[in-house]
Amino acid sequence: DVCSSDLPFAVIDDPALWANADDLVRRAAGVPIRVASKSVRVRSIIDRTLAREGFAGVMTYSLAESNWLVDHGIDDILLAYPTTSASALKDLVADDRKRAAITVMVDSVESLDHLDHLLGADHPAIRVAIDVDSSLRIGPAHLGVRRSPVHEVGDASVLANAIEERKGFELVGVMFYDAQIAGLPDSSAAVRLVKKRSAAELLERRSKVIAAINEHAKLEIINAGGTGSLEVTGADPAITELTAGSGLFVPTLFDGYDAFEARPAAYFVLSVVRKPA
Fold it and tell me: What is the pLDDT of residue 2?
């Protein structure tokens, strides 16, 4: 028996969790899945997921978290967002192991300038990836999140060239997160049409962006997709890896997807303090 003062609890349904993990791997159809730690804030679950076939590496939320995970034995980390943390950056460049394990996200020449400003222009080489905006543009309409100023092939080529020419950076990756596909429930015929059109546009644009970047660097990481788009994005042979995190817990956002069954695995337990009617 547990008294109400001990609440709230966070509860994980283990059978559901690992059934979800197996389903993610099934939907990825052989493409490795990077675990998004932003959605899985339990290190033991991250470790246990990485031990399963079909998963490789972590996509992190912050550079401080990335450094911390390396200290706890994870050696393949893609930071999903540009960083402005001077302390975390200094921690990164002071440790060869961290610099080998962590790839930092950039989306502009200003990102490079800021890192040089914080660390000095003579800092050791940092592994970087380019965040490419993967939203759908139809005329003046912008469908999806405004994640990066890099959208067109020319944008990516200019930034890749700037990284190539600048000391202290090694371009190793590119990321395409299709929020308007992965994060949008199949709630209507119109939504399904937008998602289908966006997937087709991205398939063509991704290949051109990758080709343009490969003229400046040999890409190790071509990351794309999310829990809601694994089977769509993973069908692109240019992709080297997918990302999923919330698909392990399956919050209510995913109740309305056609491609998979919602199987909630994470719960909060709260007190019932009144029954007003």
Answer: 57
- Buried b or exposed e, range 196-225, using 16+ CB within 10 angstroms: eebbebbeebbeebbebbeebbebebbbbb
Rounded to whole angstroms, the Cα distance separating 207 from 233 reads 12
- Token representation of residue 21: 């993990």
Mean pLDDT of 262-270: 93
27/258 Cα distance (integer angstroms): 12
Whole-angstrom Cα distance, residue 245 to residue 92? Answer: 24
Taking the C-alpha atoms of residue 86 and residue 102, their distance in angstroms, rounded to an integer, is 16
Tokens 């979800």 sit at which residue?
20
What average pLDDT does the structure give for the chain? 95
Contact (CB, 8 A) for 215 and 160: yes
**pLDDT (0 to 100) of residue 6:** 81
The residue type found at 114 is H
The 3-state DSSP class for residue 263 equals coil
Instruction: Quickly list H helices, the chain.
Output: 14-28, 43-50, 63-71, 86-93, 96-101, 109-119, 153-165, 179-182, 189-214, 230-233, 246-249
**CB under 8 Å, gap of 24 or more: what pairs does 194-199 form?**
194/136, 194/143, 195/232, 197/136, 198/135, 198/136, 198/143, 198/144, 199/229, 199/232, 199/233
Global confidence as pTM: 0.94
Across residues 101-114, what is the average pLDDT? 98
pLDDT at 7: 86
